[in-house]
Amino acid sequence: MEEIKVKVIWDDEAKVWIATSDDIPGLVTESEDFDTLINKLRVIIPELIEENKLEFRRTGKIKFHIIGERTEILMV
From CA 44, how far away is CA 27, in angstroms rounded? Predict the structure, then answer.
């Protein structure tokens, strides 16, 4: 099974999650909600694989691994 690494960061100023990947050229998307972002990735990743003519083994399955980052500030 193929695996694509997707980096997801929280942009506190814009109040959105932003997803990018070095494995898929052109992959940049955002959403205010994490689950909505995942659903967008499920659509965008196959489209970009086809558009970029990337070679993946034709197993019918591609796993994407989310690497998340979010920073919070606590007032003490």
Answer: 8
- State the DSSP code for 66: E
In order, the DSSP letters of 5-48 are EEEEEEETTTTEEEEE-SSSTT-EEEESSHHHHHHHHHHHHHHH
Give the pLDDT mean for 53-67: 82
What's the CATH fold of domain 2-69?
TTHA1013/TTHA0281-like (3.30.2390)
Phi, psi of 12 (to 5 degrees): -65, -35
Please, are residues 37 and 30 in contact by the beta-carbon 8 Å criterion? Answer: yes
pTM for this entry: 0.84
Which position has the token pair 């694989």?
49
Would you state the structure tokens that stand for residue 38, as one six-digit string? 């995942």
